């Protein structure tokens, strides 16, 4: 099968940052689906996994292990074969999923994925539009409802939630899921086009995360926020998060910190801080791993009912090394709105 990958962790403009490989078609294990991949999207995690480990391109630390490394953590495709213990799917089913960071990814004609973390693809939705969603939908859902403790069925309707970086892939889904849950959605975005994107997705209030968040929110009579999620640059935004969070509130972040955070500031308010990492369930084979498949089925139903819409902002063409390089370059530039997708493999 054809697969796009790399043998060394290299800067994106290096000619060998991505190459096309001919690899064996994988055989499914007992709980695996083998999926014929039709469309993928590219996420910041792809760029982080591919990034150089050392300034010298030939340094041993830059060698992929095992090589070649195939990335891709979002896909839509058709089930081609199933393992002996599979019960939820059969060949011919159209599925979508975010995969497992410890296994070969979706930038290949065929991919193995555990059925527990797979959802039935939404019907009537363009394959690339659906492929844009699994990783960010799962991350947004787990952030809002598992980590911040909001109720997805409306029991917390009217409760303010602050989403820092609302125009990114995760933020774009979080705005919609929070809106569907009846929450009062406050999103941050810095550029005019990204602010408009947040409003179109359903944000009630949009403020500039490069400005004084407290002052901007005070203008909207929002001075104490029970739930705050950070989807970008935790070090920069943590001081405002600690100031704005309500007593007994919750903070969550999908990005790590580069410097120590003064958590003692949260103590007097009895505030909880939570990390969200979408790959935790598959990576550690947690007993509730199957929740990811259930969440994706729910998201698919919401898409079919037009309660959610795709966050695909740009289609970059077919799945090949050049287009993957373009996607990584755009994401590393830091100004991507929504998601970037690719669909179909080149015949040659």
TrEMBL record:
<dbReference type="InterPro" id="IPR013154">
    <property type="entry name" value="ADH-like_N"/>
</dbReference>
<dbReference type="InterPro" id="IPR036291">
    <property type="entry name" value="NAD(P)-bd_dom_sf"/>
</dbReference>
<dbReference type="Pfam" id="PF00107">
    <property type="entry name" value="ADH_zinc_N"/>
</dbReference>
<dbReference type="GO" id="GO:0016491">
    <property type="term" value="F:oxidoreductase activity"/>
</dbReference>
<dbReference type="InterPro" id="IPR013149">
    <property type="entry name" value="ADH-like_C"/>
</dbReference>
<feature type="domain" description="Enoyl reductase (ER)">
    <location>
        <begin position="13"/>
        <end position="342"/>
    </location>
</feature>
<dbReference type="InterPro" id="IPR014182">
    <property type="entry name" value="ADH_Zn_typ-1"/>
</dbReference>
<comment type="similarity">
    <text>Belongs to the zinc-containing alcohol dehydrogenase family. Quinone oxidoreductase subfamily.</text>
</comment>
<feature type="compositionally biased region" description="Basic and acidic residues">
    <location>
        <begin position="47"/>
        <end position="66"/>
    </location>
</feature>
<keyword id="KW-0560">Oxidoreductase</keyword>
<dbReference type="InterPro" id="IPR011032">
    <property type="entry name" value="GroES-like_sf"/>
</dbReference>
<dbReference type="GO" id="GO:0008270">
    <property type="term" value="F:zinc ion binding"/>
</dbReference>
<dbReference type="Pfam" id="PF08240">
    <property type="entry name" value="ADH_N"/>
</dbReference>
<dbReference type="InterPro" id="IPR020843">
    <property type="entry name" value="ER"/>
</dbReference>
<dbReference type="InterPro" id="IPR052585">
    <property type="entry name" value="Lipid_raft_assoc_Zn_ADH"/>
</dbReference>
<protein>
    <recommendedName>
        <fullName>Zinc-type alcohol dehydrogenase-like protein</fullName>
    </recommendedName>
</protein>
<keyword id="KW-0862">Zinc</keyword>
<feature type="region of interest" description="Disordered">
    <location>
        <begin position="46"/>
        <end position="67"/>
    </location>
</feature>
<keyword id="KW-0479">Metal-binding</keyword>
